[in-house]
Specification:
The chain is mainly α and 88 residues long. The chain has one domain: Orthogonal Bundle (434 Repressor (Amino-terminal Domain)), CATH 1.10.260.40. InterPro entries: Cro/C1-type_HTH, Lambda_DNA-bd_dom_sf, TransReg_Diox_bact_type.
């Protein structure tokens, strides 16, 4: 069913869908943690040196999350990141 809706694995359409799904997922993780800590978007933005609107877009999955930004935001939220790289 997913293939019918968003294309075959490896197709540009499927790759775009996967990227948007990951952006949404990571936005949810960041928002949930921020709220659990009782931090506003504005406070988080000040801690990491960005605009509140950027935090809002990230939490909604509306913008591409750069690794450097993810590291700074995760650190501000007390999230430990682990990056696994597997060569195929």
């Amino acid at each position: 069913m997913l293939t019918r809706e968003v294309g075959k694995v490896g197709s540009p359409e499927r790759d775009e869908f996967n990227a948007k799904a990951l952006a949404w997922y990571y936005g949810e993780v960041l928002r949930d943690r921020r709220k659990a800590l009782g931090i506003t978007q504005k406070e988080l933005a000040e801690r990491v040196g960005c605009d509140r609107s950027y935090i809002s877009r990230l939490e909604k999955g509306e913008t591409d999350l750069q690794l450097s930004s993810f590291i700074r935001i995760a650190a501000a939220l007390g999230i430990m990141l682990r990056l696994d790289v597997n060569l195929i």
